[in-house]
Write a sequence for this structure.
C-alpha cells in the first residue's frame, strides 16, 4: 500500500486531536451534570431543586422559562453566610474603634459609649432603632471612596467569633454550589439583603460571584457634591420584609422565579410570596437553622416563616439533614 | 499517482468547509468594523468616539478598561428620542382621558381640570411641581401589573405630533448605532433618565435593546400588599441633575466611563461630571439641539450645559453637523 501523503496525515492528526479535546470537555461537563450539588445530601429537596431547574430550562417542557426571565434572589445573612453575630455588626464595631482613635471624646456619646463600655443591654433594649443608629454613625459622614477602602480593609482583617479562617469560612458551601448551578442554567443570581449596599458589594463577587449591580440592599442617602459621592447620615431604604419585593422591582423590574431566604427574623416571607406571584412556575426555599452542632440552632418565637412555608407550600431546607457540609473550606 | 482514500478526501472537505465558514464570518465582522456608525458624518467627533473605543478595548493599550468596568449611561429624553413634547407627557394625557371616562366628576379638580380645559398656563406657571402632580395623578393608585398593561397599550397606539410612524420614528438612528457599537465592544449600556421607571422600561428593550434592569429612572413609591405591588401617589426619586450620579451608584455601584446626555434642561451635567471622575479614561458626550430643520432648535437660557462642556472639555455633538440622518426609519 502506498504511503499516505504527509500533509494528509498532519491534517488528520489536527482533526483527531481537536475532536478528542472536545470529547474530553464534553465528558467533563457530563460528569458535572451528574452531581451539580455535591455538598447536598441526596434528599427530596435536592431532587426537587434539580427537577425544577431541568423543567424550566427544557424548551419542550410546559414549565419552560425564557433565559431573560430566569431571575433568582438570595437573602444574605443566615442564607449565604452565618448571622450570629451579623458581619455588618462586626464592621460597625471595627469602625467605632477607628473613629474613637480619631475622636476619643466620642466615647461619651451614644452609640459609641455603649460599644466602648460593652453595654449590650443598650442595643438589646433599643432593637432595630439602635442598630440603625450604630450603622448611620459608623457608615456615613465620609465619601463613598473612603467607605469602600475601609470595607476592603475590614474584610481582609476580620476575625469571626469561633471561625478559624477568613470571612470566606463562614459562607455556606452548598449555597455556593446552588448559585453556580443556577447560573450554569442561565439564571441571573441577585443578592437581596437587609445588610447595607456598599458593605455587601465589597465582598459579593469574591464570595458569591455576584457583581455589584446584582446586590439589592439597605442603603443610606447619598449626596453628589462637586464630583464626590458623599454618604449622608440618613437611612434611605431598610431592605427587610415588605421592602424586599419593592426593592427587587426597583432594581430588576421582574419577579424572581427562584427565591431563597431564611427563618430567624421573618425577613424573607414577603420576598418568597412575591416570587410565588410570578406568572412562571417558581421555587421558594427557606433555610431552617436547626443545626446546633455544625452551625446554630435558632427559631422565631412565633414560627412566622415556617408557618408561611407550610401555608404556601414552600420548600424548607433543613441545614441538619439537607447539607453534607455547611461551610466553605 | 494513486488515488487518495475516500475517507481522507471527506475529512479534508469537512476541514476546508468549516474553515471557509469561519473566514466568511470573519470577513463579515471585518466589514462591520469598517463603519460601525454609518449614520454619523465623518467628523472629528465620530473619529474621537472610535479612537476611544479602540483604545479602551485594546489589552495592550495604556487606556485599556476591563470588560466588567465598561459602563455606559445614556439619558433618554432629548438624547435617545425627541422631547418636544415629552413622550411621558403624552402618556399622562392619555391616562387623563381614560380616567375621565371612569370618573367624569374629576374634570372639576386639578390637574384633570387643566388638561380637560387645555389650560396650558396652569402647567407653565406651576413648572416641575405641576408636572409631578400630573404624573402622580395619572401613574399611581393602581397595581404594577395594571400600569404595565396601560403603558403597553399607550406605546402601541400613541401618535407623536408631527411624526408619521409609531413611537420608534422619533428615536435617533445614530444613537442606536452608538449603543450597538458600545455593546459590541463589551460595554454594558444603561439608560439614566428623568422619565419614570416603569414607563421607560415598557419600551427600552424594543427601542434600544436595553433590558428592564438597565433602566435607571425617576420613581414613585411602591407598597407590597398581599402579593401585589401597589403604586403609591408619592414621588420617591426625581432622577434629574445631582440625583443621577446617586441613582447610578445605587443601581450599578460603578462610575460610568461613557456618559451621554443633552443640553436643554441642564439635567445631565452632574452625570457627565460623575463619569469624568472615573479612575479610567472616560468619554463625555453632550447632544446639542441645533437642528431646526430635521429635529428642533432649543438652547438653555444660561447655556449651563454647553458652558460645562467647554469648561470640562466634554465632546459636544452637533445634531446638525455630526449626524447624517436623525431618526430611525
Amino acid at each position: 500500500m502506498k504511503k499516505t501523503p504527509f500533509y494528509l496525515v498532519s491534517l488528520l492528526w489536527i482533526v483527531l486531536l481537536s475532536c478528542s479535546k472536545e470529547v474530553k470537555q464534553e465528558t467533563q461537563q457530563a460528569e458535572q451534570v451528574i452531581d451539580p450539588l455535591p455538598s447536598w445530601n441526596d434528599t427530596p429537596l435536592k431532587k426537587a431543586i434539580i427537577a425544577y431547574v431541568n423543567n424550566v430550562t427544557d424548551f419542550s417542557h410546559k414549565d419552560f422559562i425564557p433565559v431573560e426571565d430566569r431571575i433568582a434572589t438570595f437573602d444574605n445573612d443566615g442564607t449565604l453566610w452565618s448571622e450570629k453575630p451579623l458581619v455588618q455588626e462586626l464592621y460597625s464595631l471595627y469602625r467605632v474603634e477607628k473613629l474613637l482613635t480619631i475622636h476619643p471624646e466620642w466615647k461619651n456619646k451614644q452609640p459609641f459609649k455603649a460599644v466602648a463600655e460593652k453595654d449590650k443591654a443598650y442595643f438589646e433594649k433599643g432593637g432595630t432603632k439602635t442598630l440603625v443608629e450604630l450603622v448611620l454613625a459608623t457608615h456615613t459622614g465620609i465619601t463613598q471612596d473612603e467607605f469602600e477602602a475601609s470595607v476592603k480593609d475590614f474584610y481582609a482583617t476580620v476575625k469571626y467569633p469561633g471561625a478559624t479562617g477568613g470571612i470566606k469560612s463562614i459562607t455556606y458551601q452548598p449555597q455556593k454550589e446552588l448559585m453556580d448551578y443556577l447560573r450554569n442554567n442561565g439564571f441571573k443570581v441577585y443578592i437581596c439583603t437587609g445588610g447595607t449596599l456598599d458593605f455587601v458589594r465589597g465582598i459579593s463577587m469574591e464570595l458569591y460571584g455576584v457583581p455589584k449591580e446584582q446586590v439589592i440592599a439597605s442603603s443610606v442617602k447619598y449626596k453628589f457634591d462637586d464630583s464626590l459621592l458623599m454618604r449622608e447620615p440618613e437611612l434611605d431604604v431598610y431592605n427587610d420584609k415588605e421592602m424586599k419585593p419593592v426593592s427587587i422591582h426597583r432594581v430588576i423590574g421582574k419577579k424572581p422565579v427562584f427565591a431563597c431566604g431564611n427563618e430567624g427574623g421573618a425577613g424573607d416571607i414577603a420576598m418568597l410570596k412575591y416570587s410565588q406571584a410570578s406568572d412562571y412556575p417558581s421555587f421558594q426555599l427557606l433555610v431552617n437553622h436547626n443545626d446546633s452542632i455544625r452551625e446554630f440552632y435558632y427559631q422565631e418565637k412565633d414560627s412566622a416563616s415556617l408557618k408561611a412555608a407550610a401555608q404556601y407550600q414552600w420548600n424548607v431546607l433543613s441545614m441538619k439533614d439537607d447539607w453534607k457540609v455547611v461551610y466553605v473550606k
